[in-house]
Amino acid sequence: MIGLGSYAYFWRHSARVDAPLTLAEEFEDARRLGVGLFQICDDARLERMGDAELRDAATAARENAMTIELGTKGVAPERLDRFLRLADAFDARLVRSMVYGPGSRPSLGEAAGWLEQSVRMYEAAGVELALETYEQLPTSDLVGLVERVGSDALGICLDPANVVARLEQPSECIRKSAPHVKNVHAKDFAFARQDGWVGFTYSGAPMGTGLHDYPALLEAVRPRERGANEIVEHWLPWQGDAATTITAERDWTRTALDYLRSTP
Length: 264
Description:
With 264 residues, the protein is of the alpha/beta class. The chain has ten helices and ten strands. It has a single domain, classed as Alpha-Beta Barrel (TIM Barrel), CATH 3.20.20. The strands form two sheets. Strands 1-2-3-4-5-6-7-10 form an eight-stranded parallel beta barrel, surrounded by five helices. Helix 4 packs parallel to helix 5 and helix 5 packs across helix 6. The two termini are 13 Å apart.
């Protein structure tokens, strides 16, 4: 299933715009775009919500016929326990996380112990846990961690854009991760020369216009055959003013949805 994530609304719910969107408004916008899946990912609003606000947000998701996934950072048991409870509130069947979280950089052995402790509860609840590929951890180490824990409820959230920062090839990240992928972050990326020819900026690009060989990802991973959802994200730089940035964010979202819907 193709969905939208919090990073597709990064600027529209930020403090830099006059009227930041609420979660309920984002669900409504996704529904208008014909999307029935939303990943609330690294969204500080979720952490600040009290019980009543969480119930209201979950109700808004149901009213908009929205399937919810959740996203956080870290694998400390208390962090994963909290998000399993949040998954229950939203009827979410997947939680995306990263090995390192706020103030937490476990060794691979420590992370494996924590995951072995937590993943049993995820298995019992019917919720999958997907650890994201990113630059702070080699993809081979992440794959080894998932294989060491050895649970059907634990896999990988594939985002090959991230690993370029540690000089990994996206194609190698895809190849190594493919057997374990449970979720895909779908965004394009490109390098651009800085003014004065003194370096490059690595940033986002409208889907289908950058360096990401997404058809190759689809061929290697086959997410649509295995039920791994594709979540649209953006790395959209600030465009100088709020109105221009918001317009670009909307345009990038429509472009990404059209691109993904047109790929076999």
